[in-house]
Amino acid sequence: MLARMKKGPCCGVVLAACFCFLYVATGTWPLSGGGPWSGDPTSTSFTDQQQQQEDLGYTDDSSLPLNYPHPTETLNDGLSFRYFDTEVTFQTEGVAGRLLTQHEHALLTSAKEAAKHYLTQLHPNTAFVSGRYRWLPDGVEYDLIYKDEASDVTSRVTLFQKLEATKVLRSITVDQKTVVNMVVTLKGRVAKYATFLDHLVKNVLPYDHNLSLTVVYFSDDFLDEAREVTSSRLSSLPNFKWSFIPLEERNFSRGRGLHIGAQQKDSKYMGELLFFCDVDVLMHSDFFSRCRSNTKKGHQVYYPVVFSLYNPKLVYPLFDKKVPPVNEQLAVDEQSGFWRTFGFGMACMFRDDYHVSGGFPDIRTWGGEDVALYQQFLKLTNIKVIRAPDPSLFHLYHHKDCMDTGSSSYVACLKSKAVTEGSQLQLGLSLLKLHQGTDLEGVLSKRFYYFWLVPYLGLLLAVSLLTNLTQAVLLLLNRRVRYFRTV
Questions:
Q1: Lowest-confidence segment of 22-36, 59-73, 105-119, 338-352 by average pLDDT
Q2: For residue range 1-27, what is the model confidence (pLDDT) as tens digits?
Q3: What digits encode the pLDDT tens for the residues 440-465?
Q4: 197 contacts 227 by C-beta, under 8 angstroms
Q5: pLDDT confidence of residue 17
Q6: Whole-number Å distance between alpha carbons of 291 and 174
Q7: Terminal C-alpha separation, the chain
Q8: Other Cβ atoms within 10 Å of 342 Cβ, number
Q9: CA atoms within 13 A on the CB side of 296
Q10: Residues of the chain with pLDDT > 90: what percent?
Q11: pLDDT tens across 397-445, in order?
């Protein structure tokens, strides 16, 4: 037993020595006399190349593997590269291909200039061909392809732009008791307006008491009905401040209506923080917390990206469901809607900032006034625009009529109408049903995968019951026969 115990440490020492020998023999440790990348700083080639790299602002760390950086990835990490050339970028998320934005040009230009500056020493006539980049947790990785037409040499340059340490710029205390005045403009559509008020009274105002409402109504035959709906829905809330402003104008202009609502006489009483809204938009109560947090008078305005719901009559039957009440449809889901990135109509801002921007233009056609105001804010150097998806703001589906073919906004109206019907999958399934007569009810629900088991299990249960009943009857008959034989 003692001999065996002594053999253990000896074997360990021998294995460790073999491992060290193999480690050195394979060149993993830096050895002297190994050329320019051996790590010998006295080597002439090493010194010259190191000095050249320092002059170019480039450091090649020979201790790094060839595939550095190599982040830890899983199947759905979303760390795929974005391909780009001189003008266009292609990515897997969002649109398939689009023009590079101004900020992407600035980001990629600095990387291309650094790579070209390095390659010019080796290939003077090199030119950029294409590249790819991706954001990593600690920086940006680039792979850029260059070609020297004179020597017909292609080079790939890998760059890594490390992110700096996080810095706290400022901290601001947010007053969540600031009154938010919702400004809505309307003409007709009283049923939609009633739904908006019902949701506000039942699902928002009980949880946030620092809200007010201003409604600007363009005169038509439904003016009295709209006034009555407002009064009846809000009469149960004596502490809620609201204002109904009828206009003697019949030519509807959303921009003009919102402008009048923003500068009404009782503006101080209604609140200084404005939320421009539509009756097609419903919200959860926590949205107004972000409305207050993302705005600051004289410094910042908030343009939330609204989640637009698809046609419920198309979506829910595909899941074998009935269309639920409106308040139960308000959820962010891939199959229920999409982010309305092209819409700028919903906005939170202080009244003074609205006036500084110049306000809404008086546009009498469909759309355009929201984009105009947004662009006016982008030109102001002292006000920052916050643009972000808000998971508590929902645009309800409604039928859209694009009748004015001569209008400049006709194409935009058609695009908006097309993308709001359903997802690519849902519209494709609808086409199959239309052209091939395929029954698609419940095709996207889990029931689709196991509904065939229901009749099979029912049949199996019926056979089992019948078998048990037969056996019970036979058993009873056998007992009776034996009883009579005994007698």
A1: 22-36
A2: 444 444 454 555 444 455 444 444 444
A3: 666 666 544 445 556 777 788 888 88
A4: no
A5: 52
A6: 11
A7: 83
A8: 13
A9: 13
A10: 48
A11: 987 778 777 776 778 777 777 778 887 777 777 777 777 766 666 666 6
| CB neighbour list of residue 75: distance below 8 Å, 6 or more residues apart | none
Q: Is the pTM higher than 0.90?
A: no
CB 308 within 8 A of CB 252: no
Distances (CA, A) of 305 to 95, 217, 277, 432: 17, 26, 12, 32
